[in-house]
Amino acid sequence: MSRHVWRVLALAVAALTALTWSACGGGDAATGIGAGAPAKGKKGGTLNALFANDLEHIDPGEAFYQPDYMMVFAVHRPLYSFEPTNLEVASPDLAAAPPKLSDGGRTVTVKLKPGVRYGPPVNRTATSADVKYAIERAFTAAVPNGYAPTYFGIVEGAPEPGRKKPTDIKGIETPDEETIVFRLSESSGAFIKALSLPITAPVPEDYAKRYDAETPSQYATHQAATGPYMIEAGKDGRITYEIGKRMTLVRNPNWSAATDFRPAYLDRIELTMGNEDTTVAARQILKGKGLINGDFPPDPPVIKEAVQRRKSQITFAPLGNRYISLNTKVKPLDDVNVRKAIVAASDRNALRLTRGGPIVGDLATHFLAPGQPGFEEAGGMKGPNLDFIQNPDGSMALAAEYMKKAGYASGRYTGSETLTMVGDDSGVGARTAEVFQSQLQKLGFEVDFRQVPHDTMFSKFCNVPEARVAVCPNVGWLPDFADGQAWFDPTFSGESIVPENNSNWPQLDFPAINEAIDDAKKITGQARRDKAWGKIDRMVMAQAPAVPWIWDKQANIASSDVQGAIARWNAQWDLSFTSIK
Amino acid sequence: MVTYILRRLLWAAFLVLVVSFLTFVIFYALPSADPAVLRAGARSGNQALLESIRDTLGLDEPWYVQYAKYMERLLFHFDFGFSYRNDASVREQIFDRIPATASLVLGAAVVWIAVGIPVGVVSATRRRSWIDRIAMGAALVAISAPVYWLGLVVLYLFADDIGRFPVFKGSGSYVPLTESPAGWFGSLLLPWLVLAATAAAFYARLLRGNLRDVLSEDYIRTARAKGLRERSVVWRHGVRSAITPVVTLLGLDIGILLGGAILTETVFNIPGVGRLAFSAIRGADLPMIQGTVLIGALFIILANLVVDVLYGFLDPRVRVG
């Protein structure tokens, strides 16, 4: 399941009922406890994170979802990782310093910190060869990694994914144990940022290869930690992770605070799964001791209670966006004026109400979410200067004007095409889709609305161009990391359109945008990148391939004795910075 | 009798095959989601990766070949495959969960039998008394209360973490019997009461009705006329006869619930088979769904078998029927 699928699933829980109240304001900042710079905490204590579902992938080579990252970044040390309040620049983690670029950005050299050691049972220093192996194994069928080809496919000699065995990637060189050199086929700003993904956390080949020989790899249950914590393991080295029940993180005895920016206050962290009644779990957190939410946002009634009576126990963090995609390859949506008319007619306030109103996020005026690099360049909260996205309640008069430009003299659609719309069959997603259906009907469209389970919506319809779905009302995006490429390359580049699991839902294939994306990918300077991706956001908006309607905020809660810290890049608690008061 | 049991066992094996075939067709040949995409577990627009996964999992083969291989693994290696979600062995996961479900269901069965049968007997023998009226009124309420709702109500009232009157252990407190018998008992008290409430009420009403009919039979009048004590008349002659449908129902109920008491396990966060199945269904984890459905079906078929055999012992006519 792709990350956007997960995200939409996870957030569907966030607004089970349409409650409306005003709480946190707009803007890009996380608000509430733990949202600012992490306060110094007290050493010791046990924290219990309640999860509704199980973690999906705990192998650093496979981990991809928010809850997985919550655990993985406490246990593993990639080359770089983000400190809680920093969304833009990753700090050296296993690396000793920022990467050095040469050869026009095509050679990236990273020096490793000396003395970063694996926990038991490996008990040795992590080397550059371990990082190389970690990346190579992510191209095998045993360790199916969804982003390896996207960001590491430009390393010279990188194979197609799904290999039977790890293949030596010639473009990754390890001249000594503390140096790793990446030779790229072209310069790439996203590659630099992707060095913060857990694929770069070292994996000791000598120890792991026997587990990687199985398909699927069994390294996940025998993994060796380099981070401040490790998964509690039995004498045989197999971790005592009870899938769907609990996982215990204990201190990694070989971790050295001198080599890490994480304070790692807690002695022990319990992850308890199966709290599927999230209302009960959320109330346990608010009334209990030493508890935080793991993978589920609290339900609206609990958020309301916390906002009104337990303000010190709730925090909100910006997350991603939601939009309604309009298929640019299907008639009459292949006409840009028809699409602009639909965006103009969209009542985004009404759409947001289906999820719970202002508390669940700000009204979106474009795609890049608040706080993301390039957000201001894309128009900030106000959005680009495009008339069809200006009115949050929708403007039928303006919509009619665009319909006339498209050749419909009455200002309403009078053609013979029926729009096929495929959306969620339950929950708030279904309500959003129903509201949007009525908005389309006001413009004169006949809508064939098919309601299916969320996974089916993606894997059988919206992700499959051949299905020719005109409108997908329940899509959205959370990028792999804070960078315009992670926002726009998979979603609006014509080159990203693929027959299966396609995430360019509008199938936008606009030459000028494709070219701008290709150029922006090669830029390595942050300021220039932000400017370029902000411009691309405006270019995409001008084509009206979708109706962006909300920038989500994720609520997180903690017991009164927890001093939490939010990892803004992940919109969840950072276990290595959280402490017990 | 041996022939009868053998015949029933053959039927049971045939039924398991049919269920396995149907679930395979429903979940593999007509999946609601693409297994390769699920297995990839990430943004997998990369077609080479998807093809590689299909090749590895054999998803590119005809469905009947996939089914044959699945059954071969199942029958000869008792291998249910691996979860698409977390790579875990389906068999290990299911067998890891059975003790929790068995603890919940068998404990609850003790409660509902201990409550339902005496209440049914008392109500039947004291018709229209205030005891009967109160018991049947309470039974009606218990039957009408959905397990999910009742579970939440008792948690908000009596759980030691979020309850108004913190008396019992709350949600997420389950402890395996092998870890702490006292903790196990304490953590299951509320779930047992909640799961047993509806069944106890239903059994009480069923037994009351049956017993009333039986007590008006001629042989009961004869027993009384012979001077037998009323207790003997009711328990040895009345209840023994009236309880047969209750035994049938008990076998089926236990079989069904062993396949997963989904709601109770979910409300009380008990890591049982039901919650595993629920979680697999929500995540379209096809091998796990297939495994839990098969195990659930197996429990129901076994329970049916036990009931049929018991019937055979109780009523010789069944054996030749």
Explained architecture:
The complex is a heterodimer of chains A (581) and B (321). Chain A has 581 residues and is α+β, with helices and mostly antiparallel strands. Helix content of chain A is 27%, strand content 18%. In chain A, the strands form seven sheets. In chain A, strands 1, 13, 14, 17 and 18 form a five-stranded antiparallel beta sheet that branches. In chain A, helix 9 runs antiparallel to helix 11, helix 14 runs parallel beside helix 16 and helix 15 runs antiparallel to helix 16. Chain A starts with a helix and ends with a strand. Chain B is mainly α. Helix content of chain B is 76%, strand content 0%. Chains A and B meet through helix 7 and helix 13 of A and helix 2, helix 3, helix 5 and helix 13 of B.
Write the layout of secondary structure elements.
The complex is a heterodimer of chains A (581) and B (321).
Chain A: H1 3-12, E1 31-32, E2 46-50, H2 66-75, E3 80-81, E4 91-92, E5 100-102, E6 107-111, H3 128-137, H4 148-152, E7 172-176, E8 179-183, H5 189-194, H6 205-212, E9 229-231, E10 246-251, E11 268-272, H7 278-287, E12 291-293, H8 300-309, E13 314-326, H9 336-345, H10 348-353, E14 361-363, H11 396-405, E15 418-424, H12 427-442, E16 446-452, H13 454-462, E17 471-477, H14 484-492, H15 511-522, H16 526-542, E18 546-557, E19 562-563, E20 566-567, E21 572-573, E22 579-580
Parallel strand pairs in A: 2-11, 2-12, 15-16
Antiparallel strand pairs in A: 1-13, 3-4, 5-6, 6-8, 7-8, 9-10, 10-11, 13-17, 13-18, 14-18, 19-22, 20-21
Chain B: H1 2-29, H2 35-40, H3 47-57, H4 63-77, H5 90-125, H6 130-144, H7 147-158, H8 181-215, H9 218-225, H10 230-242, H11 244-258, H12 262-267, H13 273-282, H14 286-314, H15 316-320
Helix pairs in contact in B: 1-14, 5-6, 5-8, 5-11, 6-8, 7-8, 8-10, 11-14, 13-14
